[in-house]
Amino acid sequence: MRLPKAPVRAIFFDIDGTLLGWDHKMPESTLRALSLAREKGVLLFIATGRYTEMALFLRELFDFDGYLALNGQYCFDRAGNVLHALPIDPADIRRLIELEQTRTLPCIVCEDKACFIAGDGEGPRLHFTSHGLTPPPPYDVSRLETHPVYQLCTYDPQTTDPVLLAHLPHVRITWAAAAAGRIHDVLPVGGGKDVAIRAVCAKLGIGLESILVFGDGLNDVDMLRNTGFSVAMGNAVPEVKAVADHVTDDVDANGVLNALLALGVL
Predict the structure, then answer these.
(1) Is residue 138 pLDDT above 70, yes or no?
(2) Distance (Å, rounded) from C-alpha 86 to C-alpha 210?
């Protein structure tokens, strides 16, 4: 079995399917693993595709050291200090709003601490209500002068994605998820969870050989392949398991705890 090459100083976790089980709750064994790792001085971070407010509910479960939100486009520590930020080119956002005048391109526009609906469609509204959240208001492009946009979430991607890729030259489509139908995340070219992890580690003076990354979904592939020692959950998709250094048990079968024990972190 492969093991990390250096003592682990930091761990980065995806949320859904990694820290949270299929009942959307954190298993007791995972919470115990986090507490034990904290006692050993290991820094614990969230790396998620969720926008900020959809991730901060975790504070009620555990006091993480920081969050890499919006697939790593906006990262901050527990005190709110920004560790890394990479917005989408403003020209692309203005072009999106121009395109909305002549066609329906339903999507969510995500800033650092707020998000908005651009275009019409039930997809964005259903996505938020499914999480018990009030759907966001319509986007006003005048906000762009003072509030950068870090990510777009497209709904009806078969229609929307080709238009965005044809007209927005500084973005890339990253992954699909099953929530309120298919959803694609749109990031700036050169962005992603892996880029954010590297930037945060550099800022904190932590070498990549001293970190673990845990994930299960398609938007975790790059961070597992391109950063530190990688752990795929037992319930991970095949693409994640294929790039991981270690495959643990399912999230609901003590996967996080078992991995940290097997790898000598605990």
Answers:
(1) yes
(2) 24
pLDDT at position 177? 53
Of 93, 115, 91, the residue nearest 105 (C-alpha):
93
Q: What is the pTM of this model?
A: 0.93
Kindly provide the b/e burial profile for residues 189-206, where b requires at least 16 CB atoms within 10 angstroms of the residue's own CB.
Answer: eebbbbbbbbbbbeeeeb
Specify the DSSP element, H or E, that contains 12: strand 10-13
Phi, psi of 144 (to 5 degrees): -60, -25
Q: Tokens 């790059």 sit at which residue? A: 222
- Is residue 247 within 8 Å of residue 265, measured between CB atoms? no
pLDDT at 180: 41
- Taking the alpha carbons at both ends of the chain, their separation in whole angstroms is 17
Report which residue type is found at 248. Answer: T
Q: What would the pLDDT profile of 245-256 be if each residue is shown by its tens digit?
A: 999 999 999 999
The pLDDT tens digits of the residues spanning 225-239 come to: 999 999 999 999 999
Nearby residues of 193 by Cβ (< 8 Å), 6 or more positions away? 12, 47, 68, 71, 72, 219, 220, 222, 223
Both tokens of 137, joined, read: 């208001």
Q: Residue 224 and residue 244: Cα distance in Å, rounded?
A: 6
Q: How confident is the model at residue 134 (pLDDT cuts 50, 70, 90)?
A: confident
Counting beta carbons within 10 angstroms of the beta carbon of residue 39, is it exposed (0 to 12), middle (13 to 18) or buried (19 or more)?
exposed
Which domains can be identified in the chain, with CATH numbers? 10-86+191-262 (3.40.50.1000), 90-188 (3.30.1240.10)
